[in-house]
């Protein structure tokens, strides 16, 4: 029996990992254990997401909580190492680019346990982003690098990573979207908020560059207030962002201007809001992908993106950091989904095939 341990801890990890867990579940040669680090612990970002996804109940909960990047990563490293020493898995699977991803990968590599990285090879080439550091280091530590778009292999080759370790499988996040699309769309979440279908802008902002500096927070709030003068704005506010906006007094200003500052939405509710939106304004990576598949116009408030394929396909506009660029955000009732290769709902199955072939041949552990 090949023992796999999954290290997950944040909303995007659950969405990306769920299809792999399901695909591996159907293969009797493997046993699976799920470790939830607790990096995300807000109910809408953790429990509600797990329920919406039908995610298996985690076997371990580490409860690392929030803190600085060093504190959070360090707690994951310490606590996950304890799990590995006790359970001695044959393989650790991580996904994405959050601090839990790096902490789990580093603990595994130090113990000589092979690491598989879902969503490997993404690069923004912006080293001011903590996520970029997490991506690059995790890829360096991983034995199996599962990529979801063609440019990822190019990025990894440029860093000297052996191509035999790289497997182009597609986008597991889109597996989850395609599986749950009917349920999400049927919710028609915009109706509950009395919003016109295709007539509102859905906003998500949480990157440190947009929300950590008080002057920037106020400038972002000013820009959203101007945007709300042109179209209704719905803003499910990440806990980190809410804290910054409340501290600067801008949360009240947004509400007074008519911006719908909601609690974080569950996975199905948020997908539903994307389906009904006329435009999405975000600084999230995964939402760029979801919006591209749904076909809703996406505007990204960042100077670079690790998802350039969404820009190339014309479904995502990179606004940069000048807030006056929000004048470009316009609602549309036209849906133009991007047909991106291998974003077809079967990426998790392709991951499982690679691992089955590797471990079935007896080389999986030896390669670590």
Task: Provide key terms for this protein.
17 helices; seven-stranded parallel sheet; Rossmann fold; 13 strands; 2 domains; six-stranded parallel sheet; alpha/beta; 368 residues; 14% strand
| Residue runs with pLDDT of under 50 for 5 or more positions | none
What share of the residues lie within helices?
Answer: 40-55%
Report Rg: 20 Å
Please give the count of helices: 17
Structural class: alpha/beta
Taken in chain order, the helices and strands follow as: EHEHEHEHEHEHEHHEHHEHHEHEHEHEHH
CATH superfamily of the largest domain: Glycogen Phosphorylase B
Report how far the terminal alpha carbons are from each other. Answer: 17 Å
What is the CATH architecture assignment of the largest domain? 3-Layer(aba) Sandwich
* Tally of discrete structural domains: 2
- What is the percentage of strand-forming residues? 5-15%
Please list the strands of the largest sheet in the order they lie side by side: 3-2-1-4-5-6-7
The tally of beta strands, per DSSP, is 13
The CATH class of the largest domain turns out to be Alpha Beta
Description:
47% of the residues lie in helices and 14% in strands. With 368 residues, it is an alpha/beta fold. The protein folds into two domains: 2-171 and 343-367, Rossmann fold (3-Layer(aba) Sandwich), CATH 3.40.50; 181-328, Glycogen Phosphorylase B (Rossmann fold, 3-Layer(aba) Sandwich). The strands form two sheets. A seven-stranded parallel beta sheet has the order 3-2-1-4-5-6-7, with helices on both faces. A six-stranded parallel beta sheet has the order 10-9-8-11-12-13, with helices on both faces. Helix 1 (11-25) packs across helix 16 (347-360). The longest helix is centred in the first third of the chain and has 19 residues, at 69-87. The radius of gyration is 20 Å and the shape is globular. The relative contact order is 0.13. The model has no long low-confidence stretch (mean pLDDT 94).
